[in-house]
Design brief:
Blueprint (H helix, E strand, L loop, with lengths): L27 E6 L10 E4 L2 H7 L5 H10 L7 E6 L6 E5 L10 H5 L4 E7 L2 E8 L7 H12 L4 E5 L4 E8 L17 E2 L13 E3 L7 H11 L5 E4 L7 H13 L5 E6 L13 H8 L4 E5 L6 H9 L28 H9 L3 E6 L3 E5 L9 H24 L8 H21 L6 E3 L13 E3 L1 E4 L8 H5 L7 E4 L17
Length: about 500
């Protein structure tokens, strides 16, 4: 039966608004280590708890020890990433898929008495044949037999308990390996699929890689993910001060804000005369994105401090903190003399220190240049939140934001919303405080500011070239931080 379209009478159009761009998180630590658990091609993994880290790493691995400090905080941070540093050249690796329980049954393998496959290693075809598994009792023996047939000088074969892995003996970026393949000219039973090492069954192929400097790895981790904010090191290989300074220099200049945490065990950092320690050098360089802590006993102490800092939820009410006075669970406190404590403070080097009232606190919570960590952390959040808020205003507008005073007001209101969040979370002052910096707009030095002041010049002041380029007028924001009390003077006047 024919029927007329209802749209002849009533036409309804549904427009679905685009999903807003998400803000970055500022509560994820990247631990960079050189254990070979994570492949160079995979480069990093994300974890939600310490148990997951323990499933991948041994309980003595530096990455695990640092993660234990990170998750040992109260409250606990929610997310961690571990990245792989290729401190030495690596082999090419062919990784098979997992074998099911049925596929692992030894009776199935015992039936193979003349197995074979071919594999190209470094461009050379290797025929692996005459494989007799009739007497094997486990898959480790299968791997051993295959390794013997390939010859240990070419590659090693491992059964991980879940899958077969073939690794070349040769190392470096020029080393290659290919999938196990069939060759119809060879007599025997092709087992590439049984091993799950063929192209249709294997998990991955990795080419070899050359040894990297630590900063080369950091550049790759920055490129691969914007999800992490903090970085610290947990390695079996000694990283020199020069290498750490190279990382600090890179973190200082990256376009997407990050922070770098260093733990030094060098006792010379407490010597006022000695000025070549890592803290002194970083202070001279005035790096604002690197934080240093001294620990005589734990080379991963900074992971604990990051664990506490990264529990801050900037969307919550009054949730910002100062790092000073916080605890470092799992880290032994330092018994310092007043001179040693003063020297560390002078060098902007933090420490978990014992006080004579039987307490220990993290002090002073400063970056290498003397800025407070909580202010650096909070302002990075504010910058990202503001960028995303204004972007979403432009992105989600059904029409446009006009180049008029009304359009500028829309942008200013969007920035104001983020500033109000800053007051709510405790980053910005919730009461009127004196503005001591240079003034702009109607704000003058000595005026009071309640958290923030936003100045939008009239659109009539905009240069024609900027208007033709479809730019907004430059919007200036004054932010008055809430700060935190670190020192108290009490004066008692006594009268008899």
């Amino acid at each position: 039966m024919n029927a007329l379209d209802l749209r002849r009478v009533v036409n309804v159009t549904v427009n679905l608004s685009p999903v807003a761009a998400q803000r970055r998180g500022f509560g994820t630590l990247m631990i960079m280590g050189d254990s070979n658990v994570i492949s160079v091609n995979e480069r990093y993994r994300t974890y939600q708890n310490l148990e997951a880290v323990a499933n991948d790493f041994s309980l003595t691995a530096p990455e695990y020890l640092a993660a234990a400090l990170y998750y040992g905080q109260t409250p606990q941070p929610s997310q961690l990433m571990i990245g792989r540093w290729a401190s030495e050249s690596t082999p090419a690796i062919l990784t098979g898929a997992s074998l099911s329980a049925v596929e692992q049954e030894i009776a199935t393998w015992n039936a193979i008495t003349n197995g074979y496959f071919v594999i190209n290693i470094n461009g050379t075809k290797t025929t692996v044949q005459n494989l007799d598994f009739a007497s094997v009792t486990n898959l480790n023996q299968v791997a051993s037999a295959i390794g013997t047939a390939i010859t240990d000088s070419v590659a090693t074969v491992q059964w991980t308990g879940e899958r077969f892995v073939i690794s070349t003996v040769a190392l470096g970026s020029s080393v290659t390996i290919e999938y196990a393949a069939e060759d119809g000219t060879i007599t025997g039973t092709y087992i590439g699929n049984m091993l799950k090492l063929s192209q249709s069954t294997a998990t991955s192929i990795e080419t070899g890689s050359d040894a990297e400097t630590p900063v080369e790895t950091v550049t790759k981790l920055v490129d691969l993910s914007s999800a992490w904010y903090g970085l610290t090191l947990a390695t079996t290989t000694l990283i020199t001060d020069e290498q750490m300074i190279a990382i600090a220099a890179f973190i200082e200049g990256v376009s997407l804000s990050r922070v770098f945490g260093i733990t030094t065990t060098d006792t010379r950092v407490m010597d006022a005369v000695y000025t070549q320690d890592i803290a002194s050098q970083l202070k001279k360089l005035k790096y604002s994105r690197t934080i240093t802590v001294y620990s005589s006993s734990n080379p991963y102490a900074m992971a604990s401090a990051f664990g506490r800092a990264f529990t801050v939820n900037f969307s919550a009410s009054s949730d910002t903190i100062t790092l000073k006075f916080k605890q470092l669970p799992g880290v032994i406190y330092e018994n310092l003399t007043e001179t040693q404590a003063n020297t560390l403070a002078t060098k902007n080097c933090n420490v978990f220190a014992y006080y004579n009232n039987d307490t220990a606190i993290f002090q002073e919570g400063v970056m290498a240049n003397g800025d407070f960590f909580d202010e650096r952390h909070g302002l990075d959040w504010w910058q990202d939140a503001t960028q995303n808020a204004v972007y979403n205003l432009l992105y989600q507008s059904k029409t446009k934001v006009p180049q008029t005073n009304a359009g500028m007001a829309l942008i200013a209101n969007t920035i104001q919303t983020v500033c109000e969040e800053g007051i709510n979370n405790g980053l910005l002052a919730s009461e009127a405080l004196v503005w001591n910096a240079d003034g702009f707009g109607e704000l003058q030095t000595g005026d009071t500011v309640e958290g923030y002041y936003i100045y939008v010049p009239p659109i009539s002041s905009q240069a024609q070239s900027d208007r033709e380029a479809r730019k907004s007028v430059p919007i200036q924001v004054a932010l008055k931080l809430a700060g935190a009390v670190h020192f108290v003077d009490v004066i008692a006047n006594v009268n008899r």
